[in-house]
Amino acid sequence: MTALALVITGWDVAPWERRFRAAAPGRDIRLWPDRLGNPDEVAYAAAWLPPPGAFGAFRNLRAIFSLGAGVDGVLADRALPQVPIVRVVDPNLMRRMTEYVTLHVLMHHRRQRLYDAQQRQGVWHEHAQPRAGEVNVGIMGLGVLGRDAAEVLARLGFRVAGWSRAARQLPGIECFHGAAGLDAFLARTEILVCLLPHTPATEGILDLALLRKLKRDGALGGAFLINAGRGRLQVDADIVAALDQSALAGATLDVFPVEPLPAASPLWAHPGVTITPHNSAASVPEETVAYIVQQIERFEAGHGLENVIDRASGY
Ligand code: NDP
Ligand code: OXD
Fold this sequence. Notes:
Radius of gyration: 21 Å
Bound molecules: NADPH dihydro-nicotinamide-adenine-dinucleotide phosphate, oxalic acid
Shape: elongated
Structural class: alpha/beta
Order of helices and strands: EHEEEHEHHEHEEHEHEHEEH
Largest sheet: 7 strands, parallel
Distance between the termini: 29 Å
Strand content: 15-25%
Helix content: 25-40%
């Protein structure tokens, strides 16, 4: 009764199955929905975007492992069994996100989109370049990912602040928290990086009203948004409006309320938008499976599971 079921939609299941079989050769690996066998034998589920009700048949389930750092896709199932939900915390995933955030902060800071446009027109023209120390970056979400990105950007010399739910203290980072701290955080932020989880409290938080509160008269002469958290944090139409009204000078978006981003979305062709296909910090089977197998071994040896999410707060 210790089988592990893979409940995966939206991703190719084959590399995950191969990796679980290689990393845990003694483990009985089942595949939802067609190769489940007797569901009473399933003790663990590893899931990405599980369809609602998918875990209902697993009467002896002991834990659910999200295959990503975010758990909103798992929590979307209103009929989830009352078992611990473990999310991915992995240094490789964290560093991939920090690479992405650093790349796009620097892209906006160094005006790379402007130089790309000039290159296409054969224009040789240099623009004034502020120092990193003159530019305010603000990171929404000071968790595992937000903290690492904040530290790296601070080392590059940016003036970095962060916003979280509870009060935090991080050396060299100006920390704001809660609804009471949000406006002051936004008012000093020129490059806004969003690394929040999607929860009922954060849904749609990146709307026009919020984007209008960003600092536009700083060294960069405008405000920029980088969202690599979740698509449902943002209101796509409001981002287009913010760009068109110059509340934003540019946006990098890795995530969208509907993925893949529909062909009809005006974001695709907007000159102020840089789009990536939800790949800022992909879960790599080799790394994620090693982490989950290690968690199961810990659990079966009588130690607690790590990185269990708090269902009440949704992350
Ligand atoms: P953590 O749980 O470690 O951190 C979440 C942070 O968000 C915490 O600082 C938390 O505050 C803050 N937060 C949550 N709710 C609120 C709120 N209502 N108001 C203010 N702050 C809030 O998560 P990670 O850093 O590991 O990951 C963050 C998110 O990144 C994931 O949930 C996922 O959605 C996304 N992600 C995206 C990927 C991609 O490829 N695009 C890849 C991996 C993750 P506090 O510190 O007070 O708890
Ligand atoms: C994650 C993701 O949550 O890849 O890890 O989106």
